[in-house]
Amino acid sequence: MNNQIPDYMTTVVLDCTGEKSKSKWIGQFKVKCVLTHGDRLAIERMYAELLPVSVNMSIGNLTEGEAANNEKMRLLAATIAELSVRIMEGPEWWRSSRYGQLLIDEEPVYELLILCNKASQDWTDQLDRNATFTEEEANLVEPKKQTDIPITRREDGFAVIEPPGVAEKTSDQKSSK
Predict the structure, then answer these.
(1) What residue spans define the domains of the chain?
(2) Are 112 and 87 in contact (CB under 8 A)?
């Protein structure tokens, strides 16, 4: 079995055209394939910071157009928040656009998220391949034996787990007295 955890960073290449500016957005990005608990919390903080209060507050009494716009804003905020944590290095245009916030095009932002998600899936697949036993290795693994671990109650009511052999000695000592 190959117990190696794959590198959690990889490089993805973006090559897309903006839907509004018609600009060509090209660049290499070093991205995290897997997120830590701290990363997920950072995404939530960034999301809360990016989302306009009006989008958060206006839940009822919205027209269909307003509701669609709110959903679009939530999706964009969630995407930029995730990219702000996942992308470790990128081209100058990415940094100068405050990591996508100042772009007028949405296409490069959503395309980057798709690339990050693919990198994450590739990382998971590699981890699964590394954790797979060969047939020879599978035959070497012995099934775990079921053991009874003696648990005794002390006079004060607490349960005590006794290592094997200790319980027999204790009961032998009590019976000899």
Answers:
(1) 9-130
(2) yes
